[in-house]
Please model this.
Amino acid sequence: MQSPIPNPGARLFSWPTRIYWEDTDAGGVVYHARYVAFMERARTEWMRALGYGQERMRQQHDLVFAVRSMQLDFLKPARLDDALEVSAVLVKCRRASLGFAQAIRREGELLLTAHVRIAALGAGDFRPRGIDDALYDMLKSLETPESDLLRNDG
Model:
């Protein structure tokens, strides 16, 4: 698998992953909770590609992100050995929270959609806090309204 490259035009980040035995149930179908882990990795790698790895944010900015809420729509199952693309698009950037639209596809076929709300927290006390100005400005510039996604995707 090649390295993911953010697409500034579409503001879409895609992260490749493959399904292994550990991801599946006894029938070889992906266990539902694994999709949450795949989406977490895509968001983490998106931040890393922007130059803000989790450890840097924790140490240099006293900032961590935590999932506040998640809405998932399971459309079709993924199976053992499938190659998947897990996408993340920032659709809402607020001072202390982020909203993502995420999807998981297999060879272009949509398997799952999700809306994920992320809270910004102080790394030391896990209390809500605002995102630093420089990071906030950069993230705000990448915000893509969902109406734009619908126009570009469908």
